[in-house]
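During the no-cost extension, the postdoctoral fellow (Dr. R.K.) reprocessed legacy sequence entries with the updated structure-token encoder. One reprocessed record is reproduced below for audit purposes.
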Amino acid sequence: MEALDSLIEPETRGGAESPLRWTTKSTRNLAGELTACGHPASHVLVAGLLKASGYSLQGTRRTLEGAQRPDRDAQFRYIHDQVTAALAAGQPVISVDTKKKELVGRFTQGGREWRPVSEPEQVSTYDFPSKADGKAIPYGIYDLADDSARVSAGVDHDTSVFAVATMEKWWQQMGRDIYPHAHQLVIIADGDGSHGHRPWLWKHALARLAAATGLEIVVCHCPPGTSKWNKIEHRLFSRITRNWRGPPLTAYQTVVNLVANTTARTGLTGQGELDSNLYPTKIKTGQPEREAIPLRRRKFHGEWNYTIKPKRR
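Re-encoded structure tokens follow.
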């Protein structure tokens, strides 16, 4: 057993001072090393010795988080107050986010669907991106008051311009009919990504949206590392994921159709649309453009909470 212990010392997986010991070597590799050291052993024997010594096969566990911001809870309370006030005043509140990119092609989706017996859908053995027809980038908008949603399936890049273009289409095709007397739009977004609180391109695109719609844009970002608390994750994306498990996403239109068919027992309705426009990356906003944005930061965490006034072009 001492010989086996020497093979599972922490080494690069821990350290000399580590109170725990573990190994990523297989039982066959350990058996081979023991045999080479003059201790003939089979992988079955090694497995038995490890189990008797208190070891077991284990995967990883997602428990490590980044540093928690001290005002995280206060920011959620602030968002709650802003949303409650807007809804009480009959103003639209939307939760926005980008869903995980999906390969388009005959790839397995990890679910099942009803088909004739012994006639499963044929898919590729390997999910290589190089074999895909492209990637679908679903950007979603969830209307909290109306319990409705709209998703644009992009084909290019997830940029700030793409995100705001999706919002403008939502307003033109859904929002302004639902809220004909609106003068304000409250947006709840993550703190990172194309709609993060840092990119100036995001704010510049929102300024154009405000000018085009005449709406005052109020933005509240979820604190960093808390995207799963965003309403859209639970009301929309989780249902989309369940809806397209099973059938392969063989074409962009398949993605759009499955999004449009996403509903919930509580009444959630969805619309989907393909956005085939190109959205180049690495677009910079110069200092004059930044200064021209009619931006007013709130006193409480102005980096997370700010308002952009409509400015006619």
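The first helix runs from residue 2 to 7. The longest strand covers residues 134-143. The remaining legacy entries will be reprocessed before the final report is submitted.
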